[in-house]
């Protein structure tokens, strides 16, 4: 039996520029932890190899320290690590891989396949590798699999990085195409792919493992690694999922219409913890008191969650008579200002500024009221 792990899209060196520096640093650190967890799992399961289907690094320009640290993270598994470049770390004449070779930091049990090739292993399997040697190609680099001859009795495993034609969600068919029937045409027992960042089965022999640590707000079953067992050549692979990812990325789109909606949202925010990365978008109409409660709940949640991005530009503020009374704006100049700002929220160009001004008035009043 051939027994291995399939992973891809580690994206080591991702910068997470949409987050603050502290949040970005922790999210980047989690990607190294994911690799260490894969090594630990591989040892625990007793697999023969870990196949890494491209995009080990997020960019060619990661620092030497990042390169050294990545390869040091593999120490927990002493079996075969079999790696190919993807589109982010393509095997260019001068690349992150040539730099790693010069640094002499690649362990002896790492098989780095920088060109299309066939590699046989004594454990009874052969790897047909189709790495990317440029960031984007319109040729199917796996085509040579059909003609590759492997040792008799060996399990044939394809390893590549790209987009399976007409099969991926959301119309992701572009460069680096791979024929959907490649496993069948090439008599592969398993085709291990990278590029799509979620776990995705193309057919019974062709899988994307997805990234082991989630990196975007998308419902695509990321944060996994695949365990694969193949009893003998032409036997169907037995594929099991193992969750590796540390953080739970969530997209919340909330429309608030009544007071209970605000209370339900603040309760959800109160449940967030250190594993949560949330993108929150809120729409609806709120009075100033409800808006203040929501603002405070978001600030508290941002202190507990690993990362929380909140977009409140879809909120329309509707001060109540009680709000106006608390602001001292039941008549006179201030009342006219509040009414003018409330009306301006309908203006496409100035609506956001008007809403922010109303909130600012509310905050100033609240702060003044809390002073001893």
What is this structure's SSE topology?
Elements: E1 2-7, H1 21-45, E2 49-53, H2 64-72, E3 80-84, H3 96-103, E4 110-112, E5 117-121, E6 125-130, E7 155-161, E8 163-164, E9 177-178, H4 182-185, E10 190-194, E11 200-203, E12 206-208, E13 224-230, E14 238-243, E15 248-256, H5 259-270, E16 276-286, H6 288-304, E17 307-317, H7 321-327, H8 332-344, H9 351-370
Parallel strand pairs: 1-2, 2-3, 3-4, 6-7, 7-10, 8-9, 10-12, 15-16, 16-17
Antiparallel strand pairs: 1-13, 5-6, 11-12, 13-14
Helix pairs in contact: 5-6, 6-9, 8-9
Name its key features.
372 residues, Purple Acid Phosphatase, chain A, domain 2, six-stranded mixed β-sheet, 9 helices, single chain, 2 domains, alpha/beta, 26% strand
For CATH, the homologous superfamily of the largest domain is named as Metallo-dependent phosphatases
Total discrete domains: 2
Low-confidence segments? none
Order of helices and strands: EHEHEHEEEEEEHEEEEEEHEHEHHH
CATH 2nd-level architecture of the largest domain: 4-Layer Sandwich
**What is the distance, rounded to the nearest whole angstrom, between the alpha carbons of the first and last residues?**
75 Å
Number of strands: 17
What number is the mean pLDDT?
A: 90
Strand content: 25-35%
The radius of gyration computed from the alpha-carbon positions, rounded to a whole number of angstroms, is 26 Å
Largest sheet: 6 strands, mixed
- Walk across the major sheet and give the strand order: 4-3-2-1-13-14
The assigned structural class equals alpha/beta
What name does the CATH topology of the largest domain carry? Purple Acid Phosphatase, chain A, domain 2
Q: Which range best describes the helical content: under 10%, 10-25%, 25-40%, 40-55%, 55-70% or over 70%?
A: 25-40%
Q: What is the top-level CATH class of the largest domain? A: Alpha Beta
């Amino acid at each position: 039996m051939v027994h291995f792990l399939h992973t891809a899209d580690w994206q080591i060196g991702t910068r997470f520029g949409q987050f603050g520096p502290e949040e970005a640093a922790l999210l980047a650190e989690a990607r190294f932890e994911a690799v260490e967890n894969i090594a630990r799992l591989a040892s625990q399961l007793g697999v023969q190899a870990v196949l890494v289907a491209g995009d080990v690094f997020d960019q060619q320009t990661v620092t030497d320290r990042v390169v050294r640290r990545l390869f040091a993270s593999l120490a927990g598994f002493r079996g075969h690590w079999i790696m190919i470049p993807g589109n982010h770390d393509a095997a260019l004449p001068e690349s992150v891989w040539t730099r790693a070779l010069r640094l002499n930091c690649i362990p002896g049990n790492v098989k780095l396949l920088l060109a299309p090739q066939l590699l046989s292993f004594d454990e009874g399997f052969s790897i047909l590798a189709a790495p990317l040697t440029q960031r984007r190609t319109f040729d199917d680099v796996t085509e040579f699999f059909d003609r590759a001859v492997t040792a008799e009795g060996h399990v044939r495993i394809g390893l590549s990085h790209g987009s399976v034609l007409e099969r991926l969600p959301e119309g992701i068919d572009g460069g680096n195409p791979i024929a959907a029937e490649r496993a069948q045409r090439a008599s592969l027992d398993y085709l291990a792919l990278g590029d799509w960042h979620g776990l995705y089965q193309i057919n019974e022999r062709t899988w994307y493992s997805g990234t082991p640590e989630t990196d975007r707000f998308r419902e695509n079953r990321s944060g996994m690694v695949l365990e694969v067992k193949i009893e003998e050549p032409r036997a169907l692979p037995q594929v099991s999922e193992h969750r590796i990812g540390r953080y739970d990325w969530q997209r919340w789109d909330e429309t608030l219409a009544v007071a209970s909606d605000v209370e339900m949202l603040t309760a959800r925010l109160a449940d967030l913890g250190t594993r949560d990365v949330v993108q929150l978008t809120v729409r609806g109409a709120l009075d100033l008191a409800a808006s203040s409660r929501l603002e405070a709940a978001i600030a508290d949640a941002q202190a507990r969650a690993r990362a929380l991005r909140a977009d409140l530009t879809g909120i329309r503020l509707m001060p109540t008579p009680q709000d106006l009374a608390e602001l001292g704006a039941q008549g006179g100049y201030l009342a006219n200002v509040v009414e003018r700002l409330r009306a301006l929220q309908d203006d496409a160009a100035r609506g956001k500024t008007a809403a922010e001004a109303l909130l600012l008035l509310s905050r100033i009043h609240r702060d003044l009221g809390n002073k001893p």
